[in-house]
Amino acid sequence: MDRRWMKAQLRRALAPTALLLALAGCGSSLPLPPTGPHLPSEPAVVVPYPPPPARVEIISPPEAPGLVWIDGEWQWRSRRWAWQPGRWEAVPPGGYFAPTATVRRSDGSLVWFAGVWHVPGKK
Fold it and tell me: Which end of the chain is least crowded, N or C, by CB within 10 Å?
């Protein structure tokens, strides 16, 4: 048999396996917080324009077990966006994290909500 033909057949047979292994390597193994919505009582900051795209961060290992990763976010400070780097944090008992959000309201205004922890029973 032709050696090139055999190599091509082997490549075709192994391609799905290689693809699955590559996709599995793309999965996140970061411990992430439980997430949920922002509350209607939270302050919304009216902003003139949306934040820039998120920055790529190199994540260091956690300093203690049981911590979760909070992604970096753009925060509105006076008249400009400022980057807040990601960080490791402990999950408050019974709490969830509402990630930063920028929302266009029906009146056309753009509002920003900071990423915050919500814990039942705490204001």
Answer: C
- In DSSP terms, which residues pair with 98 in a beta bridge? 116
What's 9's DSSP letter? H
Q: Which helix (H) or strand (E) holds 14?
A: helix 3-25
Radius of gyration, CA atoms only, the chain: 22
pLDDT, tens digit, 9 for 90 and up, residues 30-45: 999 999 999 989 989 9
A 10 A CB-CB count for 14 gives 11
CA distance 100 to 54: 11
DSSP symbol at 102: E
